[in-house]
Every structure is written in C-alpha cells, then in structure tokens.
Amino acid sequence: MSEPTVLATPTTPAEDGGGTHAPPAMPGAGLPGGPGRRVSRWRLWVVGAVLVGAFAFLLVEGLGSSLNYFETVDQALAHKTMLGTQTFRLEGVVVPGTVRRIPGGVAFVAAGTVHRVDVVNHGNPPQLFQPDIPVVVVGHFSGSSFVSDQLIVDHTAQYVQDHPNRVRAPNGTTR
Known about the structure:
The protein is of the alpha+beta class.
C-alpha cells in the first residue's frame, strides 16, 4: 500500500503574511468519488429503496382490495369472525319464498352453495330484484344477519340466456 499523497500543505498566518488561512483540506475532498460523494450516493440508495418499498406497498394493498370483488355467502360465513363488522360485498342467490318488505327496505335470505344468511337491506331494491336471482349486497354482519344499505342485481350470462326478456338496456333492447 502506498502513502497518501498530500495535495496542499497548510500555511500558518506567519508564512502567508499574517492573513487568514484556509483550514487543512481533507484528503480527497475535492476529487470525484471523495467522501462527500459516497455519502450522497448512499442517501440516494436509501431514498430510492424507501420509495420503491412505499410504491410496492400501495400497489399490493390497492390491488389486493380491488381484486376480491365480493365474498360469497359461504366464504363470508367461514370468515365471519375475521370480517367482524367491517363493510364488504356479499354475493348470494335470493332464496324463493323469503323476500318480505320491511319499513324502509326489504329482508330476504341469500344462499351460497352450502350456507344461507339473513339479509336486511335498507333502501329501495332495484326493479329487477326478485327471488332466485344472484345479488350483491354491500354491508356488514350484525349478529347473525347481514345488514346492507346497497343491493345490486347480479345478472350472470346464464341468467340472461334463461330470461332474455327480463334484462332490458335503457334504450329498450334486451340482452
């Protein structure tokens, strides 16, 4: 290993005529890649890593919540304790013979493949709401019931094929 090269010898006030003098220079301070340069590169890497991490977190959280459009009745009942009273979308088929009007809304039973849940919806149901069709309700569990404030009629392709005159577009055409 070689000795470091001294770039400048500091002068004393007596040597330069009694004036002020510059403090001793740090070895390599003015050269490219010196200590100041290494610190700023390190800071850039840290800031870059934090930004990438924040972006990844937002991406995962955003996509995670939007990819799961709804919970089926069976899924929701299996995760009922985890869901608690948080608002989510529940999908099920309206069980025939269970629809009844209540003050300010409608109550019915929604069925999954295996399980059923009582739904109490506050607000007017859509015009196409009826027994034996798939619906999505937005709300939360309250005891053994699902309390909803929004009801969406969910017409699958099979439903449209089986009942072509029931689903009409605003322009009057059937789908």
